[in-house]
Design a protein that fits this description.
single chain, mainly beta, eight-stranded mixed beta sheet, two-stranded antiparallel sheet
């Protein structure tokens, strides 16, 4: 399965975009601010920096923090534990990708639970027969 996150709105504290699943719009996204991570990740500000654009494998794994299975991005340079989960603003992110059914594309997204559950179900439906990847563009 192919996920694509197209970042399109960049503010002083947040990054907003749209997530598609196999070419079909799925959810609005909110992330931390995109920064130039630079050599040895020196541009990273802990809990305030979005991950680099690129393509990452995604698996489902149990999150001790959220106490449920959530998508986890593998091999993300400068980061550990990057997940797709619910939340409303970049303050809820810590580098992760937040998904929601609605969003103003300026300050926040909302109605997240159904989108998180839908994404988990979609990945679970294919995980035994194919890998899932996310491509992030900006």
């Amino acid at each position: 399965m192919q996920l694509k996150l197209e970042r399109s709105v960049f503010t002083d504290k947040s990054t907003f975009g749209k997530l598609s699943v196999d070419g079909k719009f799925f959810a609005f996204t909110c992330e931390d601010k995109v920064r130039n991570l630079g050599e040895n990740c020196k541009g990273k500000i802990k809990n305030e920096t979005a991950i680099n654009p690129g393509t990452y494998e995604v698996i489902l794994s149990f999150s001790n923090r959220f106490k449920k299975y959530l998508p986890l991005l593998l091999n993300v340079a400068c980061f550990e534990g990057i997940r797709v989960h619910g939340g409303n603003t970049a303050a809820d992110s810590e580098g992760c990708i937040l998904v929601g059914a609605e969003g103003d594309m300026k300050t926040r997204i909302w109605n997240c639970a159904s989108k998180v559950a839908g994404l988990v179900a979609a990945i679970k439906a294919v995980e035994k027969k194919e890998k899932t990847f996310i491509t992030i563009t900006q």
